[in-house]
Design goal:
Low-confidence stretches: none
Strand order of the largest sheet: 2-1-5-4-3
Largest sheet: 5 strands, antiparallel
CATH class of the largest domain: Alpha Beta
Number of helices: 13
Radius of gyration: 23 Å
Strand content: 5-15%
Number of domains: 2
Distance between the termini: 51 Å
CATH topology of the largest domain: Beta-Lactamase
Structural class: alpha+beta
Length: 261
């Protein structure tokens, strides 16, 4: 880190340490304390690092902690999600457990589901494994071949359901792009067991997935024109916009604006 970054880190850690109430951090408080919050040695003990190293961090010394040690420090200081993200961005480290990234299940965050109902555009919500967890009426109609199949995972529908080839215009190109976008997503937590299991299963079950995955292409999930062959409306064209909620790492709100033609 540069000198200015180390100074910012030191000031941030000290402010967060002094803001902690000892009892809330599980530290017994005996008598009057000379300084607010926790002592440096108490934070060091809670985070499993030496008092000397923690002191040097606050003093902006030229040292570096591993991502695992920083994660323990974030837990010890009871950082909010925004504060934890700031800590890892400031130290240029990768958070081994990004906040919210592991919260995957059938239930969609209610505030994200509400976003879908507040618009007339077709919209659906993807969890970190690219499973649809909520959608509005317009999306239910547009994506009937997908949602009516009973398969929530977008990747499994695209690569394992024959209906996807008929529904998605230029299937080969779109499928390749989906793989490249999903690979970019996996960098967030490359050791995630659920992600690895999904990739392994699709590699076994779909020769096309296996081929595209071996190509090692990486793309951001960009918007743009999307064409579909709808079972009722025929060929329809939309502009896709993907929104990434700040408070829910890994989730995506996907909107289809149009039809454009």
């Amino acid at each position: 880190m540069e000198d200015d970054q180390r100074r910012q880190l030191g000031a941030f850690l000290r402010a967060r340490r002094e803001a902690l109430i000892p009892g809330h951090a599980g530290v017994a408080s005996h008598g009057r304390r000379r300084t607010p919050g926790l002592r440096r040695e108490e934070v060091a003990l809670l985070s499993g690092i030496s008092t000397t190293w923690y002191t040097w961090l606050e003093q902006a010394r030229e040292i570096a902690l591993s991502p695992a040690a920083l994660a323990r420090l974030a837990d010890a200081l009871q950082l909010t999600q925004a504060e934890r993200t700031y800590l890892f961005e400031l130290t240029r480290r990768h958070d081994p457990v990004p906040p919210g990234a592991k919260v995957v299940g059938d239930a969609a965050p209610p505030e994200l589901a509400a976003v879908l109902q507040a618009t007339t555009a077709a919209g659906y919500l993807l969890d970190p494994l690219w499973c649809a967890r909520a959608w509005n009426d317009a999306a239910a109609r547009l994506f009937a071949p997908w949602f009516d199949s009973g398969e929530p995972c977008l990747l499994r529908f695209v690569f394992l359901n024959p209906a996807a080839c008929d529904f998605i215009w230029d299937w080969d190109n779109r499928a390749r792009r989906l793989i490249a976008e999903f690979r970019a997503d996996t960098a967030r937590d490359p050791e995630d067991a659920a992600t690895r299991a999904l990739v392994a299963a699709l590699t076994r079950e779909s020769p096309a997935f296996a081929q595209f995955w071996r190509e090692q292409a990486v793309l951001a999930r960009e918007g743009g024109t999307r064409k579909f062959v709808h079972p009722v409306d025929g060929v329809v064209e939309y502009e896709q916009v993907t929104l990434v909620p700040a408070a829910h790492a890994g989730w995506k709100v996907v909107m289809l604006l149009g039809p454009a033609g």
